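Translate sequence into C-alpha cells.
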Amino acid sequence: MQPEVVIASRKIGSGHPPYIICELSGNHNGSLDRALALIDAAADTGCDAIKIQSYTPDTMTIDHTGPQFQIEGGLWNGRSLYELYEEAHTPFEWHAAMFERAAARGVTLFSSPFDESATDLLDDLGAPAFKIASFEIVDLPLIAYVAKKGKPMIISTGLADLGEIELAVSTARNNGCTELVLLHCISSYPAPSEQSNLRTMPHLATAFNVVSGLSDHTLGTATSVAAIALGGAVIEKHFTLSRADGGPDAAFSLEPDEFKRLCKDSRDAWLSLGSISYEVKKAERQNLGFRRSLYAVQDILAGEKFTPLNTRSIRPGYGLPPSAMGDILGRRASKDVVRGTALSWDAVQQV
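Result follows.
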C-alpha cells in the first residue's frame, strides 16, 4: 500500500492530486498588512496550503560581524546572517492574525519552526503540520521536539546526503511522527534546473517508504511540473505579490498569475498520468472512422475476383482491417458489391 499523509483533512499521496504549498518566506517586506495581502493573494491562486517561517534573528544566530557570520556570494552577498534574518523574519506577534486570515480564506496555513519556542507557538495556534527546512535537517533535537507534537511533518532534504536523511527520518519516527513527507530540494537560490536531479525524488519515496515531492527554487514552473510527472505528490514554491517589490526571496518567487498556472499545470500533469491502458479511450472513439480499412473501389459483380484494382485499403475505417487483404485477393464476391462499400466477410465466397 502506498504511503499517505493527511493535512487538515486533505489526503496527500501518489493517488491524490498534487498538494501545492505557497511559501511566503520573507516576502512580506516587514509589513503585517503585506503579509495578510500575501495570504489573500495566495488563497486566490488555488494552492492547497500556505507556509510561513517562524523564527527570530536571535533564535537563528547571534549579532556578530565575524567573517563566518558574513554571507559571500548569491542573492545575499555581503550581508550578515543576523541582518538577513532581522529583515526576513515573520514576527511571532503576527502569527495569530495570519492564521486567522488563512482560516477566513479557507486555506491551510502552517510553518517551519526553527526552535522549540516557535514549535510551541505554532502548536498553540493549531498548525496542522510542521515543516523542517533543509538547513535544519541536521538539527536532530529540533526534529525530535517537533515529532513529539504528533502532527504530520514535511522535511526538505537540500544539502543532505543519504545518511543524514536516514538520521532525520529515524529521529522523526522514533519520536512519534507517523505521517512524513520528504521533499527533494536543491538549496540554491535560485537553483539551476539542470542540477535538479529529479530522479532522486521517487528514490526518496521508495527508500524511506514516504510521500515524496519537491521544494522547488528554480525559476519558472517547468521543474515543478516535471516533478509531478515523476510521481511527486507535493510541490512547494516561493510566492510574492511582485518581484519588482523586492524582498529577500523575491528574485526566485512566483507572482500570482504564475502561481495560478503552476497549480493548474501541476494538476493537469497529474491527471494526464492516469493508469496503464491500451483500450480505446472515450475521447478517441469518434475518430475510429479515420483508420484505414478494405473497400470496394470499383463495382464488383457476384462471382468476380477481388483484385488490387477493385479492392483497396483506404479511409474510412468501417470495413475489414487492412491485414485481411491477403485473405481476400483472388477470392470471389458472394454478391454484387457497389463501389464505395466497406467490405465484410459476408461479401466473400467461402472456400
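Note: The domain at 285-347 is CATH 3.90.1210.10 (Type Iii Antifreeze Protein Isoform Hplc 12).
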